[in-house]
Amino acid sequence: MAKLQRLQRAPLALILLACSCCRSQPRSFSVQRPLDQERERSGNQQHIAAVSNPANDDMKDLPIKERRIITEISQAGRDRDWPRAKAAYVRSSGKARNVYNAAMVAAGQCKEHSAGVAIYNRLCNAGLPKSLVTYGAALKLFSKLDRQDEVNDIIKEIWENVQPDEPLLGAMIDAAAESGKVNEAIELLDKMRSQRLAPTARHWGSAINACKNAGNSTVARFLLDFMIKDGVAPTVIVFNNAVCAHSGAELRRLQKLRTDMVQMGIKADVAFVENYVAAVSGRLVSSRTAAAAADELSLIDPERLKDIALVIAEARADKIRLTGLVKTIEGALRGIGFA
């Protein structure tokens, strides 16, 4: 017990250094684009809710017209309707920070990241003060566009001007994760813990997402173990990120992740099945037909193929919908005697 308490109090970065576990492995391939769309439909996005509702950002002195515009922009953003959000935004006076914030958040929700960056630049040029919501929205927009210089500038400005709260620290972790900056994500987790802001599964999952983007399976496993010892229950999203970070890793390590998830009572989803199959195969299966995919799979170790077949069979039994890629691999496995 004393050892565990010392572990929970110790800075993550120091433990990581002591464990000498900053090795990376190259990523083999990613299947995230369609799966990200799947998660958005199901409400299982991998990223932290980085920004608060801009409608709650000190609106008491705003004219009624501007409040209504903010409400309209926010609703349009939730509906993923950028033309409607933009039309409401351009009707504003251009003097209310909250309108800019709402428009930036809506741009992120609608994946109109360049438009959101343009709105942020107009806010800056107008000389309006920035809030925690402003910074959080800006970080998301710039990181999605992989504009790391601007991300670094915003983070520097945050530390110089405000005390980040939990959502903003989450946005900072998420920005680090987008570019695979594992050490920065861990330092931000440490910052939260030092301020007695207990990181949630979403914060830990975002840090593990950094490992995924860096291809660092060792640190991903370390963070997963640490969050569990810290009393935070992982989610299927956390395991999705951990599996992606282990793409091409030793089969026993991938099987351990799946076993841990099952023992914790966490149900696999469509994303996990595809991510796990991809990670175990450790290579890009680009063929669109089962016959052609069979040629690619023939290059993979038979023990891995058996494990892939088992996972697909379990997904079928659990009535988990399979993606097109998994169905193609299933057909290929059947053709070469593994299903």
UniProtKB/TrEMBL annotation:
It comes from the Eukaryota. The keyword Transferase does not apply. PPR repeats lie at residues 165-199. Keywords: Repeat, Signal. It holds the Pfam family PPR_3. The keyword Cell inner membrane does not apply. Residues 1-24 form the signal peptide. This is Pentacotripeptide-repeat region of PRORP domain-containing protein. It comes from Polarella glacialis.
